[in-house]
Amino acid sequence: ADDYLYTSHNLSFDVDGYKCKVVVGGMENCLEGALSNVLGASLAKKRRRYLGVVTEDEFLHDMNALGNINVNDSLVYFVICDQNNEMICDYAKSLGFNTSSIAADETTKDDIKKVFDSKKRSLVVVYGE
After folding, report:
1. What is the reported pLDDT for 65?
2. Model-level pTM?
């Protein structure tokens, strides 16, 4: 596979068709470091894309990782929120990420595939259940 997918323990994510290997990205019951773990893995540059699926709380506890000097274009973060949180997209956009928000019940595989196939660091807020 060409991509790695990192998820927090309490999230599931359909990776069919995305050539992803699911690897736990953070420690159970610990909000810190979920974004940093994905960033750290991407520094090996062995894969085309490194994908992180994190909760809103995990994002807020580790959001400074987006400003790390080593952030590269192989990174994609999916932030799972109860509601659309524009602050998350605004913050990521200010640091050079492509951003978008998608309602969970309206998300299609094509929407997600576009993000996976882009060649730019990206962050997607997936909201609602």
Report:
1. 95
2. 0.86
